[in-house]
Give the backbone structure.
Amino acid sequence: MNDGRAEATAAARLSGLTKSFSGFQLGPLDLVLEPGTVLALVGPNGAGKTTTLNCMAGLIVPDEGGTEVYGSPVHPARTEYRRDVGYVGEESGFFQRWTTGRNLDYLAKLLPGWSHDRAHRLAERFALPLDKPVSKLSRGNRTKLALVAALGHGPRLLLLDEPTAGLDPVVRAEVLDVLWEIIEDGQHAVLYSTHILSDINRLADELAFLRDGQIVLRTGRDKLSESWRRVSFRLEEENVELAGVVEHRQVRAEHQVITRNAEATMQQLTELGAEAVEVSRMSVDEIAVQILKEGHHVARVES
Amino acid sequence: MWHALRADLAYFRPYLLGGLGLAIGVVIIVSVVFFAVGEDGPPSHAAAGIRGMFLMMAPMIVGFIVQGLRSEERRVRLLLAGPLTPRHLAGVNVLVPIIMFGAGVLAAALMLGVDFLVTGKLAPESLHIVGYVGGMMFMMQMIGLLVQEAAAAHRQRRRRAAAAGWASFSGGVLLLAAITVAVVFLQGPNSWPTLHIGNLLVAIAAMIATVVLYTGRTDFTR
């Protein structure tokens, strides 16, 4: 009974989602995004992040499987789900020669549930120039406009496709501030795709690692930080096999390893009599790089 | 759908007015030249056809430019955020160039009216030639949209849809060629109406095929 209720209220549910292009296959993907969760979809270029989001926004029809948003099936021919979806992609389809304000006025008539107050409050908070043509906006301002457009009708699910890609550090920080403000009220479920790993630390509760069209690992951000460590130690023994280690460098008796299971590795090192053991925490960025490098291997062991 | 259509027409109005303005300028120059050469110039119905062609060609070209710009600005992404279905989008896609072309037809009709007011006569041949030129252009515009959709189906690996699109295109062109050749050989009182109906039939068939193919798209990202 409870399970049934949870299913009905999932912000987004991907079931066996598959989409093929020549030389690439996305999925089959199974993913549930609970309301109020910020999930970062992390992966290198070409991993399938944008295709996943496009399928979730109804811009691409999958070959098999599908997506539901708050229980409504996603398909270009259906419109119910759109009330709940705000999408920020690389291209947003604005009228380039029209001003920002005129584009927002147009959206007010196009999108049911649009709140003029909400949109203008957001535009004011983002310091978005309403009298400038979209074609003359900086990349940062375009992203902000896309955010206002995505949020103006009060969606419960926000899909963000690399919103900070290509921005200079100052504007990036500004956009991240804006995103943080939007996310912190906990009213939005957010799927945030990125290959800029430093964004993750600030915004995401959970991480899903996508590689070659497959989710290789989904885990909580904090859980990830707890188990991964960088360990250096001195040990005379050669060809030592350590539990949980994904990277091992050795110069004579000096070793440096990266472990995804710090507890097991430390216990083994104690048993082996390792000396000068130093343990350091790893940032989520560093861990993400390791996971994406190791791919399926790490994911299999992790899960 | 009507809201999206109105917005697109308002957005591209400067292009349409610019194109028509240019065509009217050309028509004025051509008219002055025809007037200057007097009886050495083309017969009146051919002159009407030439001037009408400019007036209808301009919005037709603007229609093609508009299609390109809508695609470049990824308008579909914006429209699919709202309550529009692919059928609505197909409607907007087809109606924007039709309405623009309609403005050219209207301008050509006005030109014939002015001709009538100035000269006090209007040969049926003039009407037929302007109608034929307009029909050909309309047909080409619709065929252009059909080809675009057939190519999109091919890109999206909808093989049957792509094959149907190309078959419609080839069938339309062959049908029109057959009608035109038949009319040329069998000259008669129904020649002009047959040509007009042929053009219109192919244009409408291409329009319907375009809407059907668009509705079956699996990728609306561009």
User: Anything to note?
Assistant: Residues 115 and 122 of chain B are 7 Å apart (CA to CA). Chain B touches chain A through 25 residues (CB under 8 Å). DSSP finds seven helices and no strands in chain B.
